[in-house]
Amino acid sequence: MEVFLSGLGLLATPQILLALLVGSVGGVIIGAIPGVGPAVAIAILLPATFSMDPLVGLTMLLGIYGSSMYGGSLPAILINTPGTAVNALTTYDGYPMTRQGKALHALGLAYGASFVSGVLSIAALILLSPLLAKIAPLFGSREIFLAALLGIVLVVIAHRGQTFAAGSLAAFGIFLGTVGLEPVRYTQRFTFGLDALQSGFDLIVVVLGLFALSQAFLLLSQPDQSPDSQRIDGNMFTAMLRVFRFKRIAGVGSGIGVMMGMIPGVGEFTAQFLSYTHAQKTSKTPELFGKGSEEGLVASESANNAVPAAAMIPLLALGIPGEALTAMMLSVFYVHNVVPGPALFRDQLDFIYALFAAMLLLNVIVVVFIGFSSNALTRIIRIPTRFLGMIILTLSFVGVYSLRNSVTDCVMAAGFGMLGLVLKRQNLPVVPIILGMVLGGIMEVKLRSAMARVREPLDFVDRPIAAGLAVAIVLLIGFHVWGVIRERRSRLPESERDHDSHDTQQR
Amino acid sequence: MVRSKTLQDLFKRYRRPGDMFVAALSLLFSLFLLANLPSQTTWVARVQTFAQPAFWPTVAVVTMVVFSTLHLVGALVSERIEGRWQEVAEWVKALEYVLWFMVYVSVVPWLGYLPATILFTLLLTWRLGYRGLNWSLAALGVAVFVVVLFKSMLQVSIPAGAVYDLLPSGPARTFIMTYF
């Protein structure tokens, strides 16, 4: 309790409270605009946060991460276009409810479910933190190496239908992380004699290119869209309370969200999928799912909003980001020479509690803000997409150029922007590149230090956690291969498959 | 923007036209890296394999070659999806905006952040087909908002433009150089 109060004390500064307000309100607005999404916003803001205190910078970025899904459910429900990629499932039941004249109910349920799961997940993690602080130090070099490898394996096999491309992209990310002057033996790796490659590829440049610039190029080169929306009449706060009719589904969804968020490489999509399927299987009216089911809406929104807090666990406790947004946040730690990992969790639990308390506060701020501002937000989602592309391009410049005023960085970022555009148009993921780049670096360092104490290959997995992780990796690959074989037996003809470009797979 | 249509679409990614092209490019690039592996990395004497500076680039490049080959084989044995070259044309179309971005990047050090951003947003808005006073005012608003937020308030590092030196020296010039 004392540590928790000390954590709360860390938050009580005007800068942090301002960062929290800006992050949470900004996150809702960014989330509500289809075509932006938290990854673009966090990528652009990253360099600006480097001059801030780590807790201030992280609070702002976490604010955007945690609140964007609230905003994202607004266009998902009203115009059938998810504001952020993880709100895609919300369209299945949210939009049919709007068509049935129940837009207020749908929005209220989505916000209510997001709030309940946000609070439940943070409360669970606050309670679990002392236990995690005891477990984290049991992770030595080989366990962290295996956990990072598990993250890579999961992010590859999570992209069903495109596993080979995802594997190739993850390996490309690992390769990018190795370019430059190698820090132990000082040898050159793939620099081709170019000075610009001596220091390697900066993560921020790659992130800005793949997420922000690619999105700008994509929006600018595609036909314009300016979605129209409707007014919402009625009391939003009363509508939010309806979520308590679905306590069981919201609780299970939050639980699944927390578990999936804690596993590197999994994240919101899997959490939503499990939560939605569970809700449908246990529902008295499963036939309504996809046609305006309130249970389906609660299942989807409660699962995705429980993930952000849980996703901080592998980052803070092991120094391993589980997805792109936490990978970006890792660079905030690195810039300030704070190395997240077991020692941070053991020695600075108040810092961890401060982050969780900030997330708790952001959920409250967001609910109050969104309760009053839904009608104003419906006007924001009407910004034409090509004009939005121009804004993102202008903002991307600040992100890249302010790093070190380097034109070379801008050229590289533009190159990665084009790569991102091609990948997005192909429905191919950019996240494996980022995770490969970050986790590859971690794996290199940890394997080197782990192998110093390993004589026989089996020594590597002679500790319980290492053995458990190794078994999990082998089983996951095995199950994946088995699943693919089974799927091939009942495959659809090519003409019956969906070859459209999917907005939800582009952010 | 195209929306997801079924629950299955959301969790499974199907191939798009141009998949074969991407797979072939990916394999060619991986093979290029593989061919350069001996000359671009070093194996140091009397050092464990796992601690070799060349170990991880080798792992990454070999994995890229393996997965890219499998990707290409997958594309070759699958039914062709029409529209490959239209898709490539879409990628080429986006190059125009790469050019816009690079011109913006090269103009900022000369013209200064605020004037270059105003010019960039106004011209690009016009190019995108948003004509009329309201759109120009919106573009101007975006430019001023971005510069004030990042340069004046957050004080991100963007050097003053060369043309600012032409302004008469005094507190006004210092103010403009620091905040815009």
TrEMBL record, chain A:
- Per UniProt, residues of the DUF112 domain are 17-435
Keywords attached to this Swiss-Prot or TrEMBL record, sorted alphabetically, are:
Membrane, Transmembrane, Transmembrane helix
Does this entry carry the keyword Ribonucleoprotein? no
- Any keyword Ion transport? no
Q: Which domain of life is it from?
A: Bacteria
Q: Which residues cross the membrane?
A: 106-129, 135-157, 164-181, 201-221, 315-339, 351-371, 383-400, 428-445, 465-485
Protein name stated in the entry: Putative tricarboxylic transport membrane protein
Species for this entry: Citreimonas salinaria
UniProtKB/TrEMBL annotation, chain B:
Pfam families xrefs: TctB
Q: Which residues cross the membrane?
A: 55-77, 98-126, 132-150
Q: Which residues form the DUF1468 domain?
A: 23-159
Does Membrane show up as a keyword for this record?
yes
Keywords, comma-separated and alphabetical: Membrane, Transmembrane, Transmembrane helix
The protein's name in its UniProt record? Tripartite tricarboxylate transporter TctB family protein
